[in-house]
Amino acid sequence: MIDIKNLTITQLQSAFEKAQYIAEEEIIIPVYLSLKLEKPLLITGAPGVGKTEIAKVLARVFHTDLIRLQCYEGLDESKALYEWNYQKQLIKIQLVKGSAPEELIERNLFSREYLLERPLLRAIQAPKKVVLLIDEIDKTDEEFEAFLFEVLSDFQVSIPELGTIVAEHIPIVVLTNNGEREISDGLKRRCVYLYIDFPSIQKEIKIIKTKVPETSDLLAWEVASAVHYLRHHLELKKKPSISETLDFTRALNLFDAERLKPDHVKQMINLLLKDKEDIDLFYEELGPQRLVEAIKETK
To answer: Residues 41, 173: contact at Cβ < 8 Å?
Structure first.
């Protein structure tokens, strides 16, 4: 098991490669600093560039649990931190009513037995260092961000009925941000910042060869070039993600394709483009034949 205290950049990069995540210096150094400084890592970038995957890889690298808080509009403290099991409390009241003093009943009702742990509290109370993924933080509001400040600054939470709970092991925290709204300066100050863009053609070839090793060098180059062209030459609502590139590649291998042909693009464009307007735009402005010709010209 890798020891964070004695961790080197080379060790971390090697561990990421073994976990099949291609990470150059611009990615691995912010991750390394986040681990060594015990500060949350805030990863920003378009959907599908591999932000969430970093948290999953860290959990595998350090052989620990991944605790995920999926953010959404309206997420509040009770869903992220804890709430009381009111149904269980009500049943207990009905069972012991009249057999014990009310003060004693009330005190027992607000014990850990009736506490429903949500992701933040589970991460703080974990018996070992875990990875806490706060996914798509930009979908919440500024009020929720302010609530996170105490947790991410001091790694402790206050429960009025139980007191302050301090983390025995500071979790590895990863926050992802798709850029739907501006993140507050207060949250940014508490984090190590990492921006991930869509990969270059050469990097995407490496990813394809790592994840779909049966792919020939020529086909990997043509797929990576085609996806790169779609991302940069069409005004798409949703650009193809890395996972969609891999699905497209796997599908081509199912057809025993040795290289990318217009018919392949026509048959499987829905693996890369997941919006009808994007598909219509593709056929209006480019089309399968022209896409294949365009990537040949760039070789």
So the answer is: yes
